[in-house]
Write a structure and sequence with these properties.
15-stranded mixed β-sheet, alpha/beta, 32% helix
C-alpha cells in the first residue's frame, strides 16, 4: 500500500480551497507565518471580517491600527466612565477612518451609536452595508441617516419614530443601489402599511425584504412593495406581522402577477390565532411558482400548540426537493417521518434545523444518514420541554447521532449548544483507514445561523 499524500504533494492551486475551511482567527494567523505562499492566501481571510470587543486584549490598539482592509465593526462598549469613553471613542473613530475599504458596519448596541460615529461612517466611501440600532433618542441625529446614499444593504433594529420618518427620503437617496432592507421592530407599531406604501416607489431594485415584529403590516402594505419591485423578490421574511394579514389574498395577488417567480428564500411565522390547516394550503399556493431553495418557519410569542403537518412538509418537498438547500423549523413540533422524508427526497439539502421529540432521537440518526449533502444540523426540543442546556449525559447520544451522519456534516447543534464535527483518519495494523468522529467547540466568530433573528 502506498504512503498517504502529504500537504506538500498537493498542487498550490488547491491551497486556497483548503485554507477557506479555517475559521478561527488564531489559526489563520498561524498559517500566515508558514511561508509566503500561505501568507498570500491566508491574510485576506484573516482581515476580511474584524471583530473588536471591549474585553479583547489590547482592544484599544486594535481599534487604532486597524488595517485598511474590508472590515466589519460589531459593537462598542457602553458602561464606561466619561473620560475613558471619550478616549476609546476617539480611538475607534480613528480606526474607522483607517478602514479605507470598509464595506460593512454592524453597530447594534443600544445607546452606543452616536452622531460622531455616524458622521465618521458617512465619510467611508465604500460602505455598502449598514446594520444599526434604530433607537436614536438622545444618542444620534436621525437626519444624518439619509446621507448614506450608496447602501446596498440596510438593517434597522428597533427603529424609533423619527428614524422611520427618514425612510422615504433615505430610500430615495439609495434608489439605485438598495437591494436588501430589514426592519426588526419587536412588536412596534411604527412600521405600517402606510410606511411601506411611502417607500415602495423608491425601492424598486430591492431583492431581499425582511419584516420582523411589525403587527401593523398587512398583506396590503407588503403587496405595495412586492408589486413595485422590477426584477422580483429573491428573499422574503414575514415574521410577526398583523393578525389581519390575509395569506389567501396575498397568495392570489402574487400568483396572478408572477411576483415571486425569483423567490429563493422565505421565512414565515404563525401565531395562536392562525388556522394552521387553511394557512398551510395558502402558503403552498404562494410558493407554487417560486424556485425555492430555503424554507424557514416558526411560531410567534412562545406558542407551543401548533404542529407542522406531515402533508404540508411532503408538499413542500415534492414541489421543491431538487432545489432545497435549507429546511428550517423552529418552535414547531414535527414528526420523525417528516424529517425522514425531507432528508430522503431533498437531494441537495445542506442545512437542516428541526424540532424533535425526545423519544424520536434514537431514530434521528438513520434519517439524517439519508441526506447525502448535509453540512449543518441543529436539533431543538419542543418549547414546553424547557430551554435549559443539554444534560451532560446526552453528549454520548448526540455523538452517536453524528456518527450515523454522512461525512459531509461539519456542524451539529442541540438546543443552545453548537459543535464542530471533527474527523480524524488513522491507519490500522492491517493497512485499512479508520475514521474517528469527535465533537469540538464551535470556532467561527460569527453567530451560528440558527440563532440569528433574520435568516438570509
Amino acid at each position: 500500500m502506498s504512503e498517504l499524500a502529504h500537504l506538500n504533494d498537493l498542487p498550490v492551486e488547491l491551497l486556497p480551497l483548503v485554507i477557506s475551511h479555517i475559521v478561527r482567527p488564531s489559526h489563520l494567523a498561524a498559517l500566515c507565518l508558514v511561508n509566503k505562499t500561505f501568507y498570500t492566501f491566508a491574510i485576506p481571510l484573516l482581515y476580511e471580517r474584524v471583530f473588536i470587543y471591549a474585553w479583547h486584549k489590547e482592544g484599544k490598539a486594535k481599534a487604532l491600527h486597524t488595517e485598511p482592509l474590508g472590515s466589519v465593526i460589531r459593537d462598542f462598549p457602553k458602561a464606561l466612565q466619561s473620560e475613558e469613553h471619550d478616549m476609546i471613542l476617539d480611538l475607534c473613530l480613528h480606526g474607522i477612518r483607517n478602514c479605507t475599504n470598509l464595506r460593512a458596519c454592524t453597530w447594534t448596541r443600544h445607546g452606543s451609536l452616536t452622531t460622531r460615529v455616524l458622521e465618521t461612517l458617512v465619510t467611508c466611501s465604500k460602505l455598502r452595508e449598514l446594520e444599526i440600532n434604530g433607537q436614536h433618542n438622545n444618542y444620534y441625529d436621525p437626519r444624518i441617516l439619509p446621507q448614506f446614499t450608496h447602501l446596498r444593504k440596510l438593517s434597522l433594529i428597533m427603529p424609533s419614530g423619527p428614524v422611520i420618518d427618514t425612510l422615504p427620503s433615505w430610500t430615495r437617496n439609495t434608489r439605485e443601489t438598495l437591494q436588501y432592507l430589514s426592519l426588526i421592530c419587536k412588536s412596534s407599531t411604527r412600521v405600517t402599511d402606510g410606511v411601506l406604501r411611502d417607500i415602495a416607489s423608491s425601492i424598486t431594485n430591492l431583492e431581499y425584504l425582511y419584516l420582523v415584529g411589525c403587527p401593523k403590516v398587512t398583506h396590503e402594505g407588503l403587496w405595495a412593495v412586492i408589486s413595485s419591485v422590477y426584477k422580483g423578490i429573491v428573499g422574503l421574511g414575514m415574521e410577526g406581522l398583523s393578525t389581519a394579514f390575509d395569506m389567501a389574498a396575498f397568495s392570489e395577488q402574487c400568483n396572478r402577477s408572477g411576483a415571486l417567480s425569483r423567490l429563493r428564500s422565505i421565512t414565515l411565522t404563525v401565531d395562536e390565532h392562525t388556522s394552521l390547516s387553511e394557512w398551510q394550503q395558502h402558503v403552498l399556493s404562494l410558493l407554487s411558482q417560486a424556485p425555492l431553495q430555503q424554507f424557514h418557519i416558526s411560531t410567534v410569542g412562545g406558542h407551543v400548540d401548533h404542529r407542522l403537518s406531515d402533508e404540508f412538509c411532503k408538499a413542500i418537498v415534492s414541489a421543491h426537493r431538487n432545489r432545497l438547500t435549507r429546511f428550517s423549523v423552529h418552535r414547531m413540533r414535527m414528526s420523525i417521518d417528516a424529517i425522514a422524508d425531507i432528508c430522503a427526497r431533498c437531494t441537495v439539502l445542506q442545512q437542516l434545523f428541526v424540532v424533535a421529540e425526545p423519544n424520536d432521537l434514537d431514530a434521528l440518526g438513520p434519517c439524517l444518514a439519508q441526506a447525502t449533502n448535509l453540512r449543518a444540523v441543529h436539533v431543538n426540543r419542543p418549547l414546553d420541554f424547557g430551554s435549559e442546556d443539554v444534560p451532560r449525559q446526552s453528549y454520548t447520544k448526540i455523538l452517536n447521532i453524528v456518527r450515523q451522519c454522512r461525512p459531509t456534516v461539519k456542524q451539529f447543534g442541540f438546543n443552545t449548544r453548537v459543535f464542530q464535527v471533527e474527523r480524524s483518519a488513522t491507519v490500522t495494523e492491517d493497512g485499512s483507514v479508520d475514521t474517528g468522529v469527535t465533537l469540538s467547540p464551535y470556532e467561527n466568530p460569527e453567530i451560528p445561523e440558527q440563532f440569528l433573528v433574520v435568516r438570509t
